[in-house]
Amino acid sequence: MEGIHNFKDITKIVLNNNNNSITEINGLEILQNLKEISVKNCKIERIKGFEQFPNLTKLYLQNNQIRKLKGLKNLKKLKTINLSKNKIVEIDCRQLPLAENIDLTDNLIMKIKNPSYSSRFVISCKINNKFEVKMEGNGVRIFGNNNASILLKDHSIFIEKNGLLHQHTVLDKKYSGFTEFTAIIKKTRLRKKTKIQISKVYPLRIDKINHDLEAQFREICSNLLIWVENDYDLRLLRKDLIIPLMEQLGEKKDAVAEKAFKEFKNYNKPQEEAEQISKNSVKGSLKGTTLKRKLFNPDTNDLLSVLYFNDFHDIEIKLLTPEAKPIKEVSERCIRIFIKGALMKIKEENPLLSLKYSFFKNSDIIEHIKISNLHSIHDYDLITEKMQELLSTV
């Protein structure tokens, strides 16, 4: 860049809203004193050229077209990174710098790789401004207010409130009450942890064989989101979490939670009575229940598809603009991502699964999909995940 040597002592540079679509940073090597760079709204597709500034402490790259989180790990002095409103789908903790805060809100996070690579990461996900789920160390913690949190770790649940710790072992069992609270012994932190903020995690298929930390984090985010969006429907959340979460919402005077909490007394029947309930009566209690998820275009935020989960048995997928994002039954993408990636996996455990297509204006473009005889909400999660992936690759 001509004349740049006249500005070699500057510490901050702003290149926001550049209509020339900056693709990478080059020609600025002489600016070794730079501490802050802002390149917002510039259509950058990859992070490149920033490692030439060893004194960089703040980096703002929000609202670009970045897909991969690479090219920053050698910036030892970097403290703040804002990568919100990009197209990042994967977090690899091995590629992250020693920053204090990384903002990844409003991306399409589908996978978190190597979350246990270092104990210095705290990955947090906000659920409709009601809860915050954090993955740190070897546990997952849920925050509902300033005074209490719930920690899931080593097949146990711990409730921390006002400096006291309260343990309830054996997850996924019927809630049976807690014993007394005990004091928490606080450990001194040797160094600050990198805080990674995300707003959504998509979607949330759980590996039954390898239920690792990431899978547990994704499961909790998914279940909480569905639970909150469906007015705390008691059938949508594991029972050992209902009581502590309801109590936190009750402290906030949440009217919907208060109503659901009263219903819990009828829902939480004694174990011996619950064991007598037949599968048919359980299925009958779910009739009339419909969950709805919306899938958006990551480039324009236009609504592309709506997935309805009816009676926890059937899924209807409506493609709202099939001509704009065409999906064909025999296309390689549809077979690889949707058929093999979702339906065939579900059918291995559920041979009665059935599939039916409707087509757009007598063409070979799919407009409507109906999938019947599903067994669990995890099937809904997997199908949602693969539809999101399929639409994002069109």
Mean pLDDT across residues: 76
Main sheet attributes: strand count, strand direction, barrel closure: 13 strands, mixed
User: What would you call the structural class?
Assistant: alpha/beta
> Helix and strand string, N-terminal first?
EEEEEEEEEEEEEEEHHHHHEEEHEEH
Helix content: 10-25%
Number of helices: 7
- Low-confidence segments, ≥5 residues, pLDDT <50? 169-190, 203-211, 267-285
What percent strand? Answer: 15-25%
Gross geometry:
globular
Q: How many β strands by DSSP?
A: 20
- The separation of the N and C termini measures 38 Å
Radius of gyration equals: 24 Å
Kindly report the oligomeric state of this protein. single chain
Spatial ordering of strands, largest sheet: 1-2-3-4-6-15-8-9-10-11-12-13-14
What can you see in these coordinates?
- This protein is α/β, with parallel strands linked by helices and 394 residues long.
- It has a domain at 290-392.
- The chain is built from seven helices and 20 strands.
- The protein has helices spanning 213-229, 239-251, 255-267, 271-274, 279-285, 332-349, 377-392; strands at residues 12-14, 36-38, 58-60, 80-82, 90-92, 101-103, 111-113, 121-127, 131-136, 139-143, 148-153, 156-161, 164-169, 182-183, 194-198, 290-296, 303-310, 314-319, 354-359, 366-372.
- A 13-stranded mixed beta sheet has the order 1-2-3-4-6-15-8-9-10-11-12-13-14, with helices on one face.
- Strand 19 (354-359) and strand 20 form a beta hairpin.
- Helix 2 runs antiparallel to helix 3 (255-267) and helix 6 runs antiparallel to helix 7.
- The longest helix has 18 residues, at 332-349.
